[in-house]
Amino acid sequence: MASASSKDRNLLAVIGDEDSITGLLLAGIGHINEQQKKNFLVVDSKTQVSAIESAFQEFTSRPDVAVLLINQHIAEKIRPTVDKYQQAFPALLEIPSKDHPYDPSKDSVLKRVQKMSAE
């Protein structure tokens, strides 16, 4: 896994549905690096789970990504991978989408925090 100091991490990466990605791109998060790699993946009904997994692995190993946002309903498709992710950087945040409200009981970070506070 590539390592970088926190000061080198200056990007948000997003795995989300078209509405979420569009809103975030309009807010200015879009970036394409020298290798023509984007910092976002638009997921629709035709997107293969393997493509979502691959994007997750890529974004979590990039040294320039500070935060990875993923729509919670998309995170559900790769839940074992999301639940295994334990790194501090990039921070992983599950977000709601227009058609899928946020469910705290499914959030991997919140579950980990609850487990730690119970110990």
UniProtKB/TrEMBL annotation:
Assembly information from the UniProt record: V-ATPase is a heteromultimeric enzyme composed of a peripheral catalytic V1 complex (components A to H) attached to an integral membrane V0 proton pore complex (components: a, c, c', c'', d, e, f and VOA1).
Keyword terms, alphabetized: Hydrogen ion transport, Ion transport, Membrane, Transport, Vacuole
SUPFAM superfamilies: AtpF-like
Protein name, entry field: V-type proton ATPase subunit F
Xref: Gene3D superfamilies: ATPase, V1 complex, subunit F (3.40.50.10580)
Record-linked PANTHER family: V-TYPE PROTON ATPASE SUBUNIT F, VACUOLAR ATP SYNTHASE SUBUNIT F
Gene: VMA7
Any one cellular-component term (Gene Ontology): proton-transporting V-type ATPase, V1 domain
Compartments reported by the entry: Vacuole membrane
Region listing for Disordered, in residue ranges: 96-119
Similarity comment text for this entry: Belongs to the V-ATPase F subunit family.
GO molecular function: proton-transporting ATPase activity, rotational mechanism
Compositional bias per record (Basic and acidic residues), positions renumbered to this chain: 96-110
NCBIfam families for the chain: V_ATP_synt_F
Pfam families found in the cross-reference section: ATP-synt_F
Membrane topology: Peripheral membrane protein
